[in-house]
Every structure is written in C-alpha cells, then in structure tokens.
Design a protein that fits this description.
This protein is mainly α. The protein has one domain. The chain is 57% helix and 8% strand. The chain is built from five helices and three strands; from the N terminus they run βααββααα. A hairpin with a 5-residue loop joins β2 and β3. The chain starts with 18 loop residues before the first strand and ends with a helix.
Length: 110
C-alpha cells in the first residue's frame, strides 16, 4: 500500500533509472540548457512527451537513438561531399598512386 505525504501529488513514481522526468533532467542528460532542450523538442523532434501532470518525460535510449540518427545523416552528407573525383585524385596522389590508373581500374571492373 502506498501512503502519500501531505501535499504530495499522487502519481507514478519513477523507479526506472533510464527514464528522465522534467525538461531540466533531459537538459542535463544531453548537456544543453533548458531553453535549448525545449527548442530541440519542439523544432527538431527530440523524443519527449508531457505526462498527465504536464511534466516532460523521455527515455535515455530514445534520446541516444535520436542523436545517433542525426549524426549518421550528417556523416553521410559529409562523406558524399568528401568523395568527389577531385578528392579521390588528391588522395591517390598523396598515396603515390597514379590517379588515371586508379580510375581505369574502377571503370574496368564495372
């Protein structure tokens, strides 16, 4: 049986260490300020929702998944920009490989 202290709101008590309750706790977890956290929730889809009491809640695993997916897209974008023909030619020259021979091999394999 749960006994509530005077003035304490009845509700679920968080016993899961992976759950974050409150925008302040979420902000501390991601290392950002309160306002930035709310901005990320509203504008960039940081996974969080309000419970019945109006408190922001989230799960650490959801936040990590969100961060990794955002970083993956950024890395893919950077990789696409980095792997231009000119970048490959420069890398080949730095490695002492004739760029024309390198491109001949690639086109021959197709």
């Amino acid at each position: 049986m749960v006994v509530w202290k005077k003035g304490q709101k009845p509700g679920l008590q968080n016993s899961n260490p992976l759950m974050l309750e409150g925008a302040t706790a979420i902000a501390a977890y991601i290392g950002k300020c309160y306002n930035t956290t709310l901005e990320w929730i509203w504008h960039f889809g940081l996974p969080a929702a309000k419970n019945r009491q109006g408190v922001w809640i989230s799960h650490k695993a959801l936040i990590l998944q969100w961060i990794l997916s955002k970083n993956r897209l950024d890395l893919e974008h950077r990789a696409r920009k980095a792997l231009t023909v000119e970048a490959v030619r420069e890398a080949a020259v730095e490695l002492g490989v004739d760029p024309d021979e390198l491109f001949d091999e690639v086109t021959r394999d197709r």
